[in-house]
Amino acid sequence: MNGRHSLAAAHVGVAVAAFAVASAMGVLQALSIADIPFPHRSESLYYLAVTAHGVLMALVFTTFFIMGLGYALSQESLGRITGRGLAWIAFVLGLVGSVAAAVTILRGQSSVLYTFYPPMQAHPLFYMGATLLIVASWIWGGVMIASYRSWRREHPGVPVPLSIHGMLATIILWYLATAGLAVEVLGMLIPWSLGLVTKIDPLLARSFFWWFGHPLVYFWLMPAYVLWYTVLPRVAGGKLFSDSLARMVFILFVLLSVPVGFHHQFADPGISSNWKLVHTVTTYAVLYPSFVTAFTIIASLEVAGRMKGARGLFDWIGRLPWGDPFFAAVALAMIAFTFGGFGGAINAAYAMNSMVHNTAWIMGHFHVTLGTTVALTFMGATYWLLPRMLGRELRLMTLARMQPYLWFAGIALFSISYHIAGLRGLPRRVYSASLTGEYGAAWHGLTRVAAAGSVILFLSALSYVAVVAATWIGGKRIPAPAFEFAVPLRPPTAPGVWDRFGLWTVLAMLLVAVAYGYPLLHLFAHTRYGSPPFQPF
Amino acid sequence: MNVELYERIWMWAAGGLLLLFLGAIFLTAGLQAVQPPSHIETVDPTALTTHPEFGTPAVKTRADGSVVVSVVAQMFSFSPDPIEVPANRPVTFRLTSADVIHGFEVVGTNANAMAIPGYVSQFTVTFKEPGEYLIGCNEYCGTMHHNMVGKLIVKKESP
């Protein structure tokens, strides 16, 4: 292993391992929903699998991958990781926490899904393990910021590299988001799961969860955007169309991605419709930076095609390196995101949300967004990172080339089916789409198509894991290729307004205080009774 | 900031599109009161059996002819079940949970709300099509979550 990147590689390794287990859990669910029999199929296995899939994919795979990517970028763009020892301690904490939580899930003691809404109660180690993972990510953020400061002292007046700008924005957003989670888990769930307090307010806990839960998706998405802006144009053979707009995009996410959580609670009592409207406005506003991203990235790709001699309106598309696994993965991830983004606009549409809330539509939605836009970008990025981190040539290259396309085919079958089934009313997360056995004529065919999609997704996931494992163990040793980042058409000369992190952080905190302050105070003004714990699994 | 002309056009268009979306939401919310269920009322989830309303959840008709349905969701059923309501009349659902969080979704309609213990969800729906509707729980509530279904019968109104 290339010693400079051992931290990053260790994190990516854990991410891929979590991904492998979670993928198997995914295909079990889709088969079960479609009533396709398999050995040991049971209700408890199904809800255990939903929990394991959600926690391992949404929390462990993503967080470890993002931490690894951050360390790799810090090492390459800033030439340092300040606090390596601390970073290794964080790695161990995160790993121990993830394993502890996973063990309680796989033993059937914590089938509470990755949203762990009380008054359903998991094993105390589930909450504590998840806390350790978050603490690890806090330390990671501190190490990244320390590295940036150390670099800054040596480079006064120079704009911070774009990749680090994006990661710093991600870290600020993450601290804002996890503040809500910390209140819920440390202040409410852990004392309650240990029996120190007898009752818990489910709505309050849920509101703190979604304070965290929606910016969580931007915590996943922004590192993907970092790769789109700083690596993709280079791999495509072109230049970044606009550096300053990329910085604006990252800052807009810092500002707007936290005060939006009520759009997950449109159907909840206890929150007034006016405050739900306020969060609707911020939810639409946070679509804006993604629109800007769509233009900048596609324009950068056009630049790449034209630099290779393309003429005419669409010729440049064919000149892009569709056979490169990183490029193919990211390009397909972006195509998925056009559907995911507009689907998100529908979910956020306030009253229209009633048509899709908690139906299979939502499963379709977050598998094109998290499940493809983010996950496929990270898979492609793994192919880009491995040779650079390990000094080994990618093995099973044909499989790596096919894998993104296989994923895209699988997700198309899976997500389109669930979107339609959701519109027809199929409730979310059911062991069997026939419910008690008497229903489901309107959606049974669709769940079977989705199951076929999930088998294709599983084959794609296995291909990805096989390429990673084969490269890690037996990839031909080569001099590690350089981390080459995209050069902007007009490189920035001095730090601009979008580099003033302090200012934007304060503004973001104010927005969160406004968006959550009054509704929470209003809730506290009512007599709240609280609920004892339940473990119906 | 130096922004290319085409990109500027795109940015204005994207902003316009978002304003259009928000405009549609604000117009329907303001003029037609198209709102998600957002009632604020609390209730003790451990004392529902002796609660004057939720102790005996039922369909009631008010003096003005409007219909109120009190519903308790619990693992793994809704009560009352079935729920019988008239067509073409505003039906106000008042919903709470006796244990964990449940969902209440009348499949094929826009009646869709969370049942959160300690809180009362309230929303009003008018069903135009008489017939039998499936009520599904759409929030995971335990091992038999998928079995938690109910029936809504919308009856043609007698003249």
3D architecture notes:
The complex is a heterodimer of chains A (537) and B (159). Chain A is built from 16 helices and no strands. Chain A has 537 residues and is mainly alpha-helical. In chain A, helix 1 (6-33) runs parallel beside helix 3 (84-106) and helix 8 (243-256) runs antiparallel to helix 10. Chain A is globular, with a radius of gyration of 23 Å. The two termini of chain A are 44 Å apart. Chain B is α+β, with helices and mostly antiparallel strands and 159 residues long. In chain B, strands 1, 2, 3, 5 and 8 form a 5-stranded mixed beta sheet that branches. A 5-stranded mixed beta sheet of chain B has the order 4-10-9-6-7, with no helix packed on it. In chain B, a hairpin with a 5-residue loop joins strand 6 and strand 7 (112-115). Chain B is elongated, with a radius of gyration of 20 Å. Chains A and B meet through helix 2, helix 6, helix 8, helix 9 and helix 10 of A and helix 1 and strand 7 of B.
Brief overview:
The complex is a heterodimer of chains A (537) and B (159). Chain A is mainly α and 537 residues long.
Count of alpha/pi helices of chain B = 1
Proportion of residues in extended strands of chain A? under 5%
Main β-sheet description of chain B: 5 strands, mixed
Number of strands of chain B: 10
**N-to-C CA distance of chain A:** 44 Å
Low-confidence stretches of chain B: none
Mean pLDDT of chain A: 95
Helix content of chain A: 55-70%
String of helices and strands of chain B: HEEEEEEEEEE
Radius of gyration of chain B: 20 Å
What structural keywords apply?
heterodimer, A: 537 residues, mainly alpha, 16 helices, globular, B: 159 residues, alpha+beta, five-stranded mixed β-sheet, 10 strands, 34% strand, elongated
